[in-house]
Amino acid sequence: MEKIILDCDPGIDDAMAIAYALHSPEVELTAITTCFGNAHTDVTTKNALDLLALFDASHVPVYEGLNQTIDGQLPREGAPWIHGHNGIGEVTIPTSQKKAENESAHDFLSRITKEHPGELTLVPVGSLSNVARAIKADPEFVKNVKEIVVMGGAVRHPGNITPLAEANIHADPKAANIVFQSGANIRLVGLDVTMKTLLPQDKCDEWRSRNQPSATSMADIVTFYINAYKENNPGIIGCSLHDPLAIGTVIDPSFVQTVPMKVTVGEAGESYGQTVGEEDEASSVHVCLHVDSERFVAHFLSRVV
Ligand code: BDR
Ligand code: CA
Q1: Confidence of residue 127 (pLDDT cuts 50, 70, 90)
Q2: Among the atoms of ligand 1, which is closest to the Cα of residue 14?
Q3: Per-residue DSSP letters for 123-183?
Q4: Domain CATH code at residue 258
Q5: Does 77 have pLDDT greater than 90?
Q6: Omega before 84 cis (within 30°)?
Q7: Domain residues for 48?
Q8: Overall domain count for the chain
Q9: What is the DSSP secondary structure assignment for residue 196, as one 8-state letter?
Q10: Which ligand 1 atom sits nearest the alpha carbon of residue 151?
């Protein structure tokens, strides 16, 4: 069983990733750390706590992360046109009784990887600010973390927040460069593969018909995402399973095929947030370029709610 920490910005596909991880015996969700991206970090922290309660998993601790980039800039407003103003499609779910832990996300990441060297896989699916901060603050972090499975970037595929940039990398490009150039063992799950993994539209009706609170809430939340996809991506039917695919590659790495690449991120001008990948056998960054989408989507659907 792989022990994972999900660093996330829930976020609708983040919510699906949380459910997928919780319902998959191949992984143990040991903690959630929160970051900004789809909304500011106070909102994503609340969503993480509330979603865990909805999925009956409040035992999973939540550590709040940075609400600023690695160089101290305030984040953009979020992505209300895709995730709603509250990050979960304007849907209200019950408020959790639990609060976030007192330790910050980056201190937690540093401490827990020291306590369990080589055992923990970190799965960041939002801005990379917390991870970059842990790398900068702790010289042993890169050696102690087993693998970093990043949802982010687009090496061959166009961007989704600018013509060239993917949203998570664009949220903090300097942090992304720190992470990609750290020498850590990294798998990059970007738009090159996630845009090929589509959740069929009729699934929400099926979830709703179960008459079970978490399945109904997820159906409502995901319906917002599917409608937003329809408006913003003419021709796409359904919605992309970005963050769930990152979890999927931990459950079963054979869902994807990777190529080692040196990855650099643009920090200015038109290329701000763009991920450029150059094939390089010696690189520790493994970029996913192919996905068995049919097998992955079927697996995801058999687990998610
Ligand atoms: C990524 O950006 C966010 O909107 C999603 O949650 C996902 O992590 C996709 O570009
Ligand atoms: Ca996300």
Answers
A1: very high
A2: 6
A3: EE-S-SHHHHHHHHH-TTHHHH-SEEEEE---SSS--SSSSSB-HHHHH-HHHHHHHHTS-
A4: 3.90.245.10
A5: no
A6: no
A7: 2-303
A8: 1
A9: T
A10: 8
